[in-house]
Amino acid sequence: MTLLTLQKDAFIRAKTEGTVGSNGLHNRFAFEPSATEAGELAHLLFDRQDRDWIHKPWRTLVSGPNFTYRTGLSPDERTALSYDRLRLVNEAVGNAAELADDPHRLAGLHEWTGPVDGGLCTVASIHYNLFLGSLIDHDTDGRDLSAFTSMKHTGTFLCTELEHGNDVASMETTAVLDRTTNGFVLDTPTPGARKFMPNTSTIGGPKSALVAARLLIDGRDHGVFLFLTPLSDENGHLPGVTVHRLPQRTGTPVDHSLTAFDHVWLPREALLEAAHGRLDSNGELSSNLGNRRKRLLRSISRITMGKLCMSAGTLGMSRTALAIAVRYAHNRFIAGTKPGERVALIAHRSHHGRLLDKLATAYAMTFLHRTTVTRWAAHTDEDRAEVERLVAIAKGWITWQARDITIECRERCGAQGLFPANGLADLPLNIEGGITAEGDNLVIWVKAAAEMVLGHEVDRRASAELPPGERNLTDLHFLRDLLAELEALWQNRARTALREGPSGDPLARWNETSPAALEMVSVHARLKAADTFIDAAAQAMVPSARSLLESLCLLFLLRQISEHTGDLLADGHMTADQVRQLPRIVNTVIADLAPHMATLVDAFDIPAEMLASVPIANGTYIDQRLDASATGQALIPV
Questions:
Q1: For the chain, how far is it from start to end, CA to CA, in angstroms?
Q2: Is-above-0.85 flag for pTM?
């Protein structure tokens, strides 16, 4: 059932009850959705001609009854359900190794599973990306992967330790070459070296892991490599493997655990080898990387694709939250300004204005993610560092925005949004995991900031050789130029702070520099998103869809510069009149977009079957679902 159908039903009910206001707001907000416009927008949002290949299989899969929300499950039962669903995913995959090697399809998987089961999104990312992906990124000659591609064994990935998270380069776990057996002895030397948070319990069946450990040969530390390690079989954990379940965390439960190894012997083939490290028959290591840190980064390089997976999952959650909140706003009626009048929540600027801001951001996030995945899929050795930085910046910005979007949507649905069955309550908590996983957002942004202070040139395009006073605040390219000027401004401030900071104290010097440097990264992320948004709008073939995208992009850009008008005015990039005009222009753009909100969320292409299982997305309340299930009666429409 489309939002248009729901809106028409709501309008008919209001008309029958004599509750339609004379101001015509119901007419204005109920009948605008356009299938043609929504179809064109969806085409642009979902990878255009590659939509069926990248998105359709996952969209079809999560539409089935096995992926609907289930109430009354214990944490362990919900975790087991996530693993059951992972096997359903694997049945639909075809070739699991090919999926792990395809950034577009792998990101697409997370985009569609994230909204229905945060636990599934997590274990899928670990199994397909970190585990299988790392295996196929190393030498695979003679290695049988069938147990993992068939999911007779679920794969997991053990890297961070209890005392070594973001400083994973300092990990303590060791794998010592045993020359008598030509194998390795894997050991956890201290309590702080226990692997922290991997999903290593027996829930979900037998598991194997890739364990990051220091390779020690004759007492010499050669750096961190990955070792394929069986953890459990049908009878439980294997000898030498100790697993303690961690307390339940926020969001959808996963079997996070502390894992230790007590001198576990591994065969020679357990070591994952590639050009960065290979052992010859004499147990001598050869490597094309002389730096142990570089060997570590090469060993765990799948973390970069993991950033794209995490941001993809939160993208899907954001769009789903907006679809639910906008549908609810069209079908929740409150008292109007006149006696007996009832109006939809969507009629209020205080309500639809906030949701439109988040809609504009969600579109920008999606277009940025598409471009970033494409660049990662096509990267070369020459531009790898630059693309890795883009992936990190995009991941930080997208996941932080996703949290804000889902919180806003939950709040706009009031108390009904607090119930997980209404599809919103778990989303912000699941996104918290994405913010921290595969590199904590702040940490990876600090790294990007340090690189960009001196090693980055701002993309100034100078779209018009006109003074600011002769340019228009509705000109997308002018607003884009203002964002570029802001990035340059914060970069200059960071450079000045670095140059003038305390000498002889690198930490104090960076402390003076980092606030401006991080703001530079933030503006850079929004500039990149704006560029992809403008490009997408230009490619729209349906004029009305192009107009909608341009208006939505305009709202996005206006919001980005609003918080920086003081700097832009002080540096002569805006005039005082433009600063004064900006709030009025924002209000006008919101008013123009408000009647089209249904079209904008219909373009998210959320499966009707998914939305049908969410009470407030269908004009019903959660208590009416309970009444219906208790009495066997049909649901009562709102």
A1: 16
A2: yes
